[in-house]
Amino acid sequence: MRTAIVYSQKMREYDLGHVLTGDRYESFMRLFWEKLGDNPAFEIVEPGYATEADLKLVHTEEYIRRVERCESQDPHDTPLSPRVVRAAKLMAGAGKLAGELVQSGAFGKAIAIGGGVQHAGRNYERGFGIFSDVGICAENLMQNYGLERILILDADAHAGDGIYSIFARDPRVLFISIHQDPHTLYPGPGYTNPMGEGEGRGCSMNVPLLPGTGDLAYEYVLDSVFIPLAEEFRPQVIIMVDGSDTHFMDQITQMGLTLKGIYMIADKVRRAADRICQGKVIAFAGSGYDPKGILFPRGWLASVCGLTGLEIELDEPYPFPQGYRSDYGVLEARKAAETLKANFAPYWRCFASS
Ligand SMILES: [Zn+2]
Predict the structure, then answer these.
(1) What is the pLDDT of residues 320-340, one digit of tens each?
(2) CA 58 to ligand 1 center in whole angstroms
(3) Residue 254 Cα, ligand 1 centroid: separation in angstroms?
(4) Ligand 1 centroid to 240 CA: how many Å?
(5) How many CA atoms lie within 13 A of 297 on its CB side?
(6) How far is ligand 1, taken at its centre, from the CA of residue 292, in Å?
(7) Residues 224-239 as b or e (16 or more Cβ within 10 Å = b)
(8) Residue 20's domain spans which residues?
(9) What is the pLDDT of residues 199-236, one digit of tens each?
């Protein structure tokens, strides 16, 4: 099955005037064309703008109108302008389309380039995100295509508090967020031990990791938390928010992953999807911050290759920091995983027996 790269040049309008620049999407596509442009396993698919009905799958009408008036309540991180709002609708449209391309069977996987909104909720913008492309993708599949089980793995360095808020009460969505401990990074310590609410209790979980945590700890968490849960939950599709800002040279986070580690995350997701849901994965590749613009395109490419099982040379663009250890944080990750398993044992058989 081929993989759709959901991309539009118009995404360049999603430029927030800070570390999230509008040239990042084209930077990735240049590298993609150089490395994989002649590979018939991929097809570029152009998304359209989300309609009012698409946005209302997740967002309130009052919020949509406020965004259209460009009245930001988070102006430092998430400034609004007509260009940015237009691009946010394109990002939302890309998320919805990526889901439909996989659901229809036209593609085995679809990767929305530049997406992966984590912090926006149903009625607020926050942390670079305006309309929840991840939320709209999942709600569309549930409301309009009847899906009943969707697993969202958020491997971004930041905790996915906005995604959590959207699905906290929905037992159809299993949300797993692995990230740098929010006591040490945005969005902060208010988001520490969410478990879901009401009928969704037990269906949302967090694995906070130490700054500096490397590839091996991430691998441990994926093997001991993500894989058993995926096997038990049996999602009909996996949505992955990619983890390119977990790289050790990221400008705004302090995790310790390498490009091989970012590849490994996507590779694990691909293998799980192959076993559980006919290989169906919808991915969002959008995080990663680097003033020279050379790191995150490689991170996104590593993720694309891991998701599709392509072997590729992944030369690190920056030297390793002095004293770097890929096994840093393993012991703490084990503790975090054990704590999580104990907390969630009442909800999941795979944890009750361990
Ligand atoms: Zn992030």
Answers:
(1) 999 999 999 999 999 999 999
(2) 21
(3) 11
(4) 13
(5) 20
(6) 18
(7) bbbbbbbeebebbbbb
(8) 3-352
(9) 999 999 999 999 999 999 999 999 999 999 999 999 99
